[in-house]
Design a protein that fits this description.
- By secondary structure, the chain is an alpha/beta fold.
- The chain has 3 domains: 6-112 and 298-459, no CATH class; 115-249 and 277-292, Response regulator (Rossmann fold); 483-623, Reverse transcriptase/Diguanylate cyclase domain (Alpha-Beta Plaits).
- Helix content is 42%, strand content 20%.
- The chain has helices spanning 18-34, 51-60, 85-93, 117-131, 147-162, 182-190, 204-216, 234-238, 250-265, 294-325, 331-341, 440-472, 483-495, 513-520, 522-539, 563-583, 607-623; strands at 6-13, 36-43, 72-75, 100-102, 111-112, 114-115, 137-141, 171-174, 198-201, 226-228, 245-247, 276-277, 280-282, 348-357, 375-383, 395-396, 411-419, 422-431, 501-511, 545-548, 553-558, 591-601.
- Strand 3 (72-75), helix 3 (85-93) and strand 4 (100-102) form a beta-alpha-beta unit.
- It is elongated and about 125 Å long.
- The N and C termini lie far apart (78 Å).
Amino acid sequence: MSGRRKMIAVFSSGLTGRYKCSLCRVLNIAAEDLGVNLVYFNSYGKLRSINTVAEDQESGFLEFVDLDQFDGIIFDGEGYNIEGMADRVERKLRSAKCPVVSISSHVEGFYNIEFDDAGGLRAMVEHFINHHHFTRIGYMSGYLTHPDARLRLNEFRTVMKEYGFPEDGVGMFEGDFWYNKGVEAAHYFLSLPDRPQAVVCGNDYMAISLINAFRQMGIKVPEDICVSGYDGTPDGKEFLPHITSVTRERMDIAYKALRLLTDLSDGKDAKDHDLRVFPRIVPSQSCGCDPLEYRHVLETIDRAHEDKRLMSTAVYELESAMLKLNKVDSVRQMEAVFAEDSVNFGDYSAFFMMVHTDLNGKPVYDSGYTAPSGRFIPVIWIDKNKEYTKSPHSFSTSSLIPQPSTDRCHVYYIMVVHFAERIFGYSVVEMTGKDIFNEFHNVWLHTLGLTLNSLHQKDHISKLIGRLEGLSISDGLTGMLNRRGFDDRSRAMISNLAERKNVCTIVMDMDGLKRINDEFGHYEGDRAIRALAGIITKCCDSGEIAGRTGGDEFYIFAPDYSEIRLERFVGRMKELTAEFNKTNDKDYLLDFSWGAYITETDSFGMIEEFLKIADARMYEQKVNKPGRRK
């Protein structure tokens, strides 16, 4: 990246959620306004049955992130919904040399954007008491192990006591900060002796779930019971009725966090910054302050229909891409499929996927890969605007992102690419606008991880088959071709003759193997066989192939041969055998008998006929040797 711009990292999770999408947008707007580059490190979040696997792989990627490349870091610890993940990220960020600011929860040792959460909850309760003059108010909390849930509940109780009401109002129900407890909560509030006039919910999602449950039970909101939420989410603004809520003033958070980090990196004092963010209550339809209009209903229905149409199209496109990815045989084919079909997660200007290599440079999808070296190579490189120079070299942990040639503001999203227990690497995407990608991007990454795993398995199977084939045509003692291997190779060489050629077939037999076995043992006999095999192999330097085809019998075949080459071959055999005998400390001499047959043939020649003639000549030589011993 250009040295003229500061680089700020953002560590968060589940950024494709509606609330986090809006957080990304305001951060991206502030980053462009302040002239800094952003690098998001996003994780998938909760993945149901593979939570623990996802946690291990996503947190495992942290060790490959070099924090020294950043001028500042934003930590959004609220986004990690897998147990222990936020703590792992926090421990990683404590090693950073640059300043770190937490924007969602207070972290000792970091700079903190202090959000007046209690003040927002107080304003909401007082709105019902002072504006609507309600006296019967209930509360739906998030799960009470969460610090935000405890803080908001405590403030609710404080306000209620100050106004002379029971601290839990008409009743308190513990929800889950999500949509799962609405029906249970509705039954609880409707069963109370004093039915509430209003229910204050700890966030918008629980408010939506409660209103839906009330609706199913015939309770109208706000006519029968008013309901409020918290956080000012896009979901709450689009739901009917629109949720009365408290905004977290995300734009204020974005500017304050980025200004703090840029000033600190310039050596300025943090005392000059007011890091407090004050919430703002937004009365709307669910408390009756903003009437539900017919026009709003139509707009919401139209948006829902358009979203459904786009979703259906995106699903069809992804199904097609997944079928194509199931058929790829290489990462190049995978890149081609992605380049053609990755049209359903938003407009992007660049997408890169890097995979681990080991110390030998083997990529992680190669079955010979050993362990990560801290180096990565690109396997998908899509640069629509030609802003990046594709480097032939690998990327290291100190430079995870390609170097752009432009000096405009750049915003990148990095996510780990993995499948089950195997981390393949990471992806980098740069979107064209201020908005982050949608959930289909994450599905693409899962699918690419599955494809890489498939390529890894195919490579493993291919190499295994190769080894098995090698075993089926190889002699276990010497490593030479066995009879099957020799026959296959020699027949193939003959069938590939384009014209008539002189070919040579040699049959060779070790002399005295029985004596070696009897006097020195079979171990020494095997040693002698390996020695002669090694000599034969060494002499096969002019296109010959050789195989051990029996206990002490060897075959040699060579196309395009001559008497001169045969004489040279046998002469070298004798020389190397003599050298072995000079250094052999056993009381025997390594020796051999041989017979050769040179003939002209074409592609219809029969290796079996040639071997018969060579074998007869070898046997004749063996029986006529002076002082012959078996």
